[in-house]
Amino acid sequence: MANPRTKKAATTALTKAVEYRIPVWRFALVLSVFLCLLIVVAGRMGYLHLVQQSFLAAQGEQRMVRDESIPAVRGDITDRNGEPLAVSSPVKSLWLNPKLFDVANAPKLAASLGISANKLTRRLKRNRQQGFMYIQRHLPPEKADKVLALKLRGVFSETEYRRFYPASEVTAHVVGMTNIDGKGQEGLELAYDDWLQGTSGQQRVVKDLLGNVIKQLNVSAVAEPGNELKLTLDLRLQYLAYRELKAVVQVHKASWGSAVLLDARNGDILALVNRPSYNPNNRATLNAKDMRNRALTDVVEPGSIMKAFTVAAALSNGKYTADSVIDTSPGYMRIKYKTIRDHRNYGLMSLTKVITKSSNIGVAKLAHEMGAEKLWSMLHDAKLGQATALGFPGEAVGKLPYPQKLDKLGLATLSFGYGLSATPLQLAQAYTAFANKGCVQEARLIATNEQVPCDQIMPASVAKDMSEMLETVIQRGGTGTRAKVEGYRVGGKTGTSHKVGKGGYQDSEYTAVFAGIAPISDPRFVLVVVIDRPQGQEYYGGEVAAPVFARIMEEALRTLQIAPDQSKDFHVAEISVL
């Protein structure tokens, strides 16, 4: 007979087994749900793979493939002999994505570039929500590569071009400069920006998640470089003209100075310099006052150098010759409220002597006898009061009063260079008439083989007479003896004008000018030197500007190997850089 206890225990165990056994229907439910989920996932995968494959591929490509611009190299600017005046060299600019960059790496990045870590950190915090921020631009490629080698997340580079000016301050006013983005801002860089800048290209590249280019797919548009711009300048002459001008402005503590050297045969500007100047390679030192191209933007009352045109107008009428005599006694004349004077009473003077001694009375009497219309026509035909053909940014036009507005006093003062204004370039252009058989040749800066027709403003015979008269100014007894060039026949005219102030003409402020041509035996070159507000005991054009003319013209003639008029052993001057 079974033990009652054993029977009870067995019954209890069976009851518990039945209680904890999983029902079949519950297991089937779980399995069904799992199978359904598996079917949904598999179906979605199949849908994406078979139906939306092209869409997803395009989306992935958009996240990895980029179209990038290929920068175009800007065209070079050269002198007439091909010497570089403005060139572009490849550089790298570093930038970062503030959203990706770890600010904790700022000191490391700053140290590699030699910049302030604190300033960089502050910039990062200000631009934290931006996706782009330049770190440094226009770095030498090797320096940028060292920074990139640090592999700092969020730091990238791009290739750009930096403009460099080999002649620096010597050609700054003519060539001008670009901004950091390569856009013309001054001078010919601005005037010919479209011609120089070229056309950017386009390429498609693959980038990784950090933005680094890992593959170039294709180039859809090749970058086209800008056009070269060849100038009429001769860099050798530009250097020597700048050197001499810099010295005289410094010695005489002048406000500014300009010198313009032209080839009278074709109007080519061989040298055009100003002082003060600036270094276009260093934007940190730029000063707006120093950046003025005063040879084109600033006007002066030229003074006595205009007497040559008054005498030329008289000769052109056929009523006078170089030997015609004018009575300048008693050395002064009263017109309205103004007394016009010569340095002394020269008495009877030939027209040649009027030029030699620079007689105010002589030219005033000529002007009164000719009348305003004839003198004005000569000056207007010489292109005074008109812009030149250069199209240079900011070029001044100057002033030439209409003949109807000239009373007797105005006509007299106009005859010796007061009451009108002109730039140094306009004066040089006008003087080409005396070196080019009476024909004014338009000045030009862009080299071309085309011969621009000149404007005949006086007979060739008058121009020849005038050149010989101008030669007497350089000889003993003339006002410009310090413009003499050893071994060559040169001619020119001195000019000294009072500066205009608040109360009228100032007694102690002057503009010193010399305009000349060389060689007289076969005139070819015109050189005008303007020195504004020279300080000290010397301020006349014959004292301040004439010596600069002599030094520049002498070296220019020898550098260009122009045969001397006198038999003497000359050697070609070597031009030293500043």
TrEMBL record:
Tell me what topology the record assigns in the membrane. Answer: Single-pass membrane protein
Which GO cellular component terms are attached?
A: plasma membrane
Q: Where in or outside the cell?
A: Cell inner membrane; Membrane
Taxonomy, superkingdom = Bacteria
- InterPro entries documented for this protein: Beta-lactam/transpept (IPR050515), Beta-lactam/transpept-like (IPR012338), FtsI_transpept (IPR037532), PBP_dimer (IPR005311), PBP_dimer_sf (IPR036138), PCN-bd_Tpept (IPR001460)
The Swiss-Prot or TrEMBL record annotates one GO molecular function as: serine-type D-Ala-D-Ala carboxypeptidase activity
Residues passing through the membrane, by range: 24-47
Where it mainly occurs, coarsely classed, is membrane
Tell me the active site: 304 (acyl-ester intermediate)
The reaction(s) this protein catalyses: Preferential cleavage: (Ac)2-L-Lys-D-Ala-|-D-Ala. Also transpeptidation of peptidyl-alanyl moieties that are N-acyl substituents of D-alanine
- Alphabetized UniProt keyword annotations: Carboxypeptidase, Cell cycle, Cell division, Cell inner membrane, Cell membrane, Cell shape, Cell wall biogenesis/degradation, Hydrolase, Membrane, Peptidoglycan synthesis, Protease, Septation, Transmembrane, Transmembrane helix
The pathway to which it is assigned is: Cell wall biogenesis; peptidoglycan biosynthesis
EC number(s) of the enzyme?
3.4.16.4
Q: Where is the Penicillin-binding protein dimerisation domain?
A: 70-217
Q: Which Gene3D superfamilies match?
A: 3.30.450.330, DD-peptidase/beta-lactamase superfamily (3.40.710.10), Penicillin-binding protein 2a (Domain 2) (3.90.1310.10)
Q: Where is the Penicillin-binding protein transpeptidase domain?
A: 257-554
Provide the GO biological process annotations. cell wall organization; division septum assembly; FtsZ-dependent cytokinesis; peptidoglycan biosynthetic process; proteolysis; regulation of cell shape
Going by the record, the broad EC class of this enzyme is hydrolase
**PANTHER family, alphabetically?**
PEPTIDOGLYCAN D,D-TRANSPEPTIDASE, PEPTIDOGLYCAN D,D-TRANSPEPTIDASE FTSI
**Role according to the record:** Catalyzes cross-linking of the peptidoglycan cell wall at the division septum.
- Report the sequence similarity comment from the record: Belongs to the transpeptidase family. FtsI subfamily.
Q: What is this protein called?
A: Peptidoglycan D,D-transpeptidase FtsI
Name the species this protein comes from: Oleispira antarctica RB-8
